[in-house]
Design brief:
Elements lengths: L8 H25 L8 E2 L1 H8 L3 H13 L3 E4 L3 E4 L4 H25 L2 H20 L2 H19 L2 H10 L5 H5 L2 H19 L3 H25 L7
Antiparallel strand pairs: 1-3, 2-3
Helix pairs in contact: 1-3, 2-3, 4-6, 4-7, 4-10, 5-6, 5-9, 9-10
């Protein structure tokens, strides 16, 4: 195909539909992981589509995706229902993310350059500013940009891809809306940047793992408070 040729209209529609389906899946996934959609809740196509301002088609496709992930199940003649999950499921998700992230962090610490460290310092300042103003969207974006820059420094493209997909299960905006988490994230990033400047690989790994341990504890605590499962 000529490089200057425009994509076929049907292909463009398919791409937009796939993107919209991914966005709906992300919102439903976050709602499930944060406890907003509790296990046993039926996800109605028409109600969900109306709430998200989309048609039924991307909702249906999103539910198919979530069914493949084991987050919802289809009950014949009744519809999709949110699947049950446990503290162990939460622990497993964060263990996987931390395992990948610490491997990336160790590689980044060995390869990183001062200009990249300076950029991480700047991005930490942006995160701190966003936390100060309480801008949830800005906090989520600053956190994403910091970790993207850090992960790129490792040169482990495939591992970073796996981490990105594992991170889909984090309800990012729940964390971003928590001022205590925001302050802890800023402190963590500053300690991480200092360890990178000191070329202290063990400390870089420790700070990286610490952020995932903290996130797991906060999410489990939130779900306990919501009564998602019996405490104790």
């Amino acid at each position: 195909m000529n490089a200057s040729a425009k994509p076929l209209p049907g292909l463009e529609r398919a791409r937009r539909r796939e993107q919209l389906s991914d966005e709906v899946a992300a919102q439903l996934r976050a709602a499930i992981m944060s406890g907003s959609l509790r296990p046993g809740t039926f996800v109605r196509l028409d109600e969900t589509a109306a709430a998200l301002g989309v048609s039924i088609t991307p909702v249906r496709e999103a539910l198919r995706t979530l069914r493949g992930e084991g987050m919802v199940q289809l009950e014949p003649h009744r519809g999709h229902v949110v699947s049950a999950f446990t503290r162990d499921d939460i622990a497993d998700i964060f263990w996987l993310q931390a395992t990948i992230a610490t491997e990336i962090a160790a590689n980044a610490a060995r390869r990183i350059t001062e200009p990249v460290i300076a950029e991480l310092d700047r991005l930490t300042d942006e995160l701190a500013d966003a936390v100060t103003t309480g801008d949830v969207e800005a906090i989520a974006l600053a956190e994403f940009l910091f970790h993207r820059e850090f992960n790129r420094a490792a040169g482990r493209t495939k591992l970073a891809w796996f981490l990105l997909h594992a991170a889909r299960y984090l309800p990012v905006r729940i964390y971003a809306a928590d001022p205590e988490w925001g302050a802890a994230a800023v402190a963590n990033h500053r300690a991480l940047v200092a360890a990178l400047r000191d070329n202290d690989i063990d400390e870089v790994v420790r700070q990286t793992r610490g952020q995932f341990d903290d996130a797991a504890e906060r999410l489990t605590g939130r779900l306990d408070e919501l009564g998602l499962w019996p405490s104790g």
